[in-house]
């Protein structure tokens, strides 16, 4: 799955695997099982992540997206095992993902008052399960990372968003998805400023440990700036020369070398850098990063260009990495 098939044709590229930006076969199997209504594999996959917040965050995010529309199945398990932190976490994140699916288009809010109320109610439904998960495992940052997205979705005051970020970062300062959530919180599109967001991204690059994908925050930040208030664009006009140079520098700070293997979010980082280099027409580094995605594209940053699947395929085609 997602392996580059170079043995048959040298030009042949990655087989596209939608919405699975990871290299985790256990998670692949658990997601498939969850979609068939078998939650045992997903629960076991989450239990195995105790003590590893990076993997825990990735797995609960993926498993929750797989369960959109089926949160009541998790509720039934919670009712039988109310002391299980993984079930509470899974339930809270699933309700969160279900709520995001209900979010009205900002341009149509005036005529979607009922849907907006439904969305807010659904969002609030995620809060108590996440707080319960946080209470059951007090050192776990992942419930707090989820609550960062909750605060963002509910458009809570900045002080509330800062508090949740503090609770998450003091438990695990380098948690990549929490840093992405913080980046989005600081972005112009969500009430922040380009300057504050870039300062955060640059500081993350500077302090990133070997193997950490935190340098990928830099291209993500520039995507947020370029895409703020604009409709999806063609390749031209995204990044200035100075921005391109900064992204090149950030890429140079990132190495996949890491004790214990590649970081769980490495595929997402390759997507971020690959998309940025593709838009800058820097073909060689773009190819180098996109070939390492193994056909597994992430929603960010491709959604800034339009439909993520279409944009990823288009980039691969233009870089002579045709998808199969």
Describe the protein.
There is one protein chain. With 324 residues, this protein is mainly α. Helices cover 60% and strands 0% of the residues. The chain is globular. The two termini are 12 Å apart. The N terminus is likely disordered.
Mean pLDDT: 91
Instruction: Please indicate the percent range of residues in DSSP E strands (runs of 2 or more).
Output: under 5%
What are the secondary-structure elements, in order, as H or E? HHHHHHHHHHHHHHHH
Q: Report the major sheet.
A: none
Number of distinct beta strands: 0
Helix share, percent: 55-70%
Query: Cα distance, first to last residue?
Result: 12 Å
Low-confidence stretches: 1-13
| Apparent shape | globular
Derived from helix and strand composition plus strand pairing, the structural class reads: mainly alpha
Radius of gyration from the CA trace?
19 Å
Q: Number of helical segments?
A: 16
Offer a concise description of the structure.
The protein contains 16 helices and no strands. It has 324 residues and is mainly alpha-helical.
Descriptive keywords:
0% strand; 324 residues; 60% helix; 16 helices; disordered N terminus; mainly alpha
List the helices and strands and how they pair.
Elements lengths: L24 H11 L4 H8 L5 H14 L4 H10 L4 H18 L10 H24 L5 H12 L4 H14 L4 H11 L7 H14 L9 H11 L13 H12 L13 H14 L3 H8 L8 H4 L5 H11 L6
Helix pairs in contact: 1-2, 1-3, 3-5, 4-5, 5-6, 5-7, 6-7, 7-8, 7-9, 9-10, 9-11, 10-11, 11-13, 13-14
């Amino acid at each position: 799955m997602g392996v580059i098939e170079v043995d048959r044709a040298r030009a042949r590229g990655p087989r596209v695997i939608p919405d699975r930006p990871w290299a985790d076969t256990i998670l692949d199997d658990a997601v498939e099982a969850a979609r068939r209504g078998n939650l045992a594999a997903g629960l076991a996959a989450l239990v195995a992540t105790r003590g590893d917040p990076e993997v825990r965050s990735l797995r609960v995010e993926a498993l929750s997206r797989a369960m959109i529309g089926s949160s009541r199945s998790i509720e039934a398990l919670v009712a039988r095992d109310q002391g299980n932190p993984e079930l509470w976490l899974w339930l809270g994140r699933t309700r969160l993902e279900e709520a995001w699916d209900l979010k009205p288009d900002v341009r149509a809010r005036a005529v979607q008052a009922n849907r907006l109320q439904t969305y807010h109610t659904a969002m609030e439904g995620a809060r108590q399960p996440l707080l319960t998960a946080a209470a059951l495992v007090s050192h776990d940052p992942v419930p707090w990372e989820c609550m960062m997205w909750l605060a963002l979705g509910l458009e809570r005051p900045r002080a509330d968003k800062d508090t949740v970020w503090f609770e998450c970062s003091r438990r695990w300062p380098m948690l990549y998805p929490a840093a992405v959530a913080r980046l989005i919180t600081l972005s112009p599109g969500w009430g922040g400023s380009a300057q504050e967001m870039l300062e955060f991204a640059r500081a993350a690059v500077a302090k990133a440990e070997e193997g950490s994908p935190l340098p990928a925050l830099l291209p993500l930040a520039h995507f947020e700036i370029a895409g703020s208030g604009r409709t999806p664009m063609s390749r031209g006009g995204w990044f200035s020369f100075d921005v391109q140079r900064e992204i090149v520098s950030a890429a140079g700070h990132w190495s996949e070398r890491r004790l214990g293997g590649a970081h769980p979010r490495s595929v997402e980082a390759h997507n971020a850098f690959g998309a940025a280099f593709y838009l800058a027409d820097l073909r060689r580094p773009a190819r180098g990063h996109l070939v390492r995605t193994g056909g597994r594209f992430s929603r960010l940053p491709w959604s800034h260009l339009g439909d993520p699947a279409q944009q990823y395929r288009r980039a691969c085609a233009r870089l002579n990495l045709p998808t199969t």
